[in-house]
What we know:
Blueprint: H1 3-27, H2 42-51, E1 60-62, E2 70-72, H3 79-82, H4 91-111, H5 122-140, H6 146-161, H7 167-171, E3 175-181, E4 186-190, E5 193-197, H8 204-216, E6 228-232, E7 238-242, E8 252-256, H9 265-271, H10 276-287, E9 292-296, H11 302-311, E10 319-323, E11 335-339, H12 353-360, E12 367-370, H13 377-386, E13 393-397, H14 401-413, H15 421-431, E14 434-440, E15 446-458, E16 461-470, E17 487-489, H16 497-503, H17 515-521
Parallel strand pairs: 9-13, 9-14, 10-11, 10-12, 12-13
Antiparallel strand pairs: 1-2, 3-4, 3-8, 4-5, 6-7, 7-8, 14-15, 15-16, 16-17
Helix pairs in contact: 4-5, 4-6, 5-6, 12-13, 13-15, 14-15
Pfam families: T2SSE (PF00437)
Domain Bacterial type II secretion system protein E: 162-442
Family: Belongs to the GSP E family.
Amino acid sequence: xxxxxxxxxxxxxxxxxxxxxxxxxxxxxxxxxxxxxxxxxxxxxxxxxxxxxxxxxxxxxxxxxxxxxxxxxxxxxxxxxxxxxxxxxxxxxxxxxxxxxxxxxxxxxxxxxxxxxxxxxxxxxxxxxxxxxxxxxxxxxxxxxxxxxxxxxxxxxxxxxxxxxxxxxxxxxxxxxxxxxxxxxxxxxxxxxxxxxxxxxxxxxxxxxxxxxxxxxxxxxxxxxxxxxxxxxxxxxxxxxxxxxxxxxxxxxxxxxxxxxxxxxxxxxxxxxxxxxxxxxxxxxxxxxxxxxxxxxxxxxxxxxxxxxxxxxxxxxxxxxxxxxxxxxxxxxxxxxxxxxxxxxxxxxxxxxxxxxxxxxxxxxxxxxxxxxxxxxxxxxxxxxxxxxxxxxxxxxxxxxxxxxxxxxxxxxxxxxxxxxxxxxxxxxxxxxxxxxxxxxxxxxxxxxxxxxxxxxxxxxxxxxxxxxxxxxxxxxxxxxxxxxxxxxxxxxxxxxxxxxxxxxxxxxxxxxxxxxxxxxx
Length: 522
């Protein structure tokens, strides 16, 4: 065999020898729909560097001293990994996205001016968009499957009339909260647990358009001079948005949904949030015009419980509600809803919760319901409770009834009044009758973990007495992880029950009995 023949034979053998090494490399390559982490060998990196400067190597690099084995150059979950470029779209999804963009632009050309026509009802506007969109899709003349056509129509309609990729999450009754951490990361809360959603925005600009659409409908604004805002949706769902430069990794959007039909006391009993005995007691407290403060952390259900307590207010009473963003869904007829207002672009025109509380005292209210006290308005609220406006309701952020008292004292100091601490505690002890503590447990459930009476002031300390407390000693189910305990009576009868007798409000005697005594008394 000549020398040239031996060289050609060896060259034909090299690819076969390399096949075992090439197969694992191909298997470990990026998969469609996987997390945004690229994989690159030294050859790929060199090719990328040749193709264009400025590309970042966020994938795996091979080291010469480890036998060619690759190791991740980016730690999973790190800031670099979270902001790595998303995986390239498949040709099908990319083509569908282009069709979607063309369809949206064509639809805007057709009906753009009529989208803001005040003479069109919501149903008429949806029918118009649906009709025009079907024509736009027909004109595209693309070989779309039935599922792709349905998806295209739904996504374009959501972008035009709804909130884009978030619309399906808003329509899903199982989703209670939506959290957007930039255009590529969307998380939802279902059954008290957080999970990542496959929904995503096409770009940061797409996310910003959705945010601006939300805030503009309630007369708010968000821009570089005012990069954070509180707003609400048409159904009362609470919205908070933060944009760059405050939000480093892209615009952040948080939506806390509220049920289309407000939860009633029977719903909370069914969920296990409270027991029937506790519901009877709280109804009697509201009817007896006791001042109640609902305490709890973020997401524990304070507003939901405040809605339920407000439903116990008898018909015929004038109710004034005061909130940062209107969320309460009172079912009574005689209700006045007040909402605070942020300053305008010139820094003027601000109306605070404290201003509204002061003004409400001149509106002849039978009940004042403050969505949440978080500043100097707590002093005005306590003074209102002490000057004839009994039966007021409010919420405060605190982890226990004792912490709620301490937080009220701190909030009063924020009013700017140079009051001695004893005077503040006298105001709190005299104004607040009942503290209802809500807790979100580790298993995701929300429970009323304490109903506490404010006894009064002994020395320099506000004294409290629990009527109901949660039994943590029952433990946790080993299989489901659910807490086995329940909120049970302590056996102590609150002093405010004497007022029930004076007002003719009947209360079953077994309510305050401990569980063993309660079964014996029946």
